[in-house]
Amino acid sequence: MTQEQLRLHEVRTALLDLLAEVGTVTATEAAGRLGYSSGLCSFHLRQLARHGYVEEAPHEGGRARPWRLRQQHSAEATDASMKDDGFEARARALEDESWQQWLAGRDRAPAAWRRDEAFSAISYLTPEEMSRVAETIRRALAPYRDREHRPLARPEGALPVALVARLFPLLPHAEPDGDEG
Known about the structure:
It is a single chain. This protein has helices at 3-22, 27-34, 38-50, 75-83, 87-105, 127-141; strands at 24-25, 54-56, 67-69. It contains 6 helices and 3 strands; from the N terminus they run αβααββααα. It has a domain at 3-114: Arc Repressor Mutant, subunit A (Orthogonal Bundle). A 3-stranded antiparallel sheet has the order 1-3-2.
């Protein structure tokens, strides 16, 4: 995955997560919450709208342009959008591909970079707690976001690092139909 692909995924995912959390947001509000520029947030909100993920929220004129997650009108539409082989599926596939490339090539990395900090955990959370954990992770990463656009802010020896967090409920396994035997 290129740095640009990582960045596109990061910005758009952060915007979608923010909209899921707060409902509606302008590019300026998103920039303030996420630590990106309002121009960058505006661009990515328009791209998400172009691909059907977000839409303009009703508003009363003025320059403010609030956005919201695209309204689904039925459970079928929601199911179809979740099965769509769109942005989310492509982003996850790129993450997985980058991880496999890392595993295959880490023995060629400089000695100081040959380890990773991958971990996983299972916690019992409510939906609200899961959102708070995600926000805590975003806040922890916020001080490092400007380094992509400001190379002079990068400490010596800094390299791009993929930061992937997936928080999702573990659904119970479905019981098999029919008799076993």
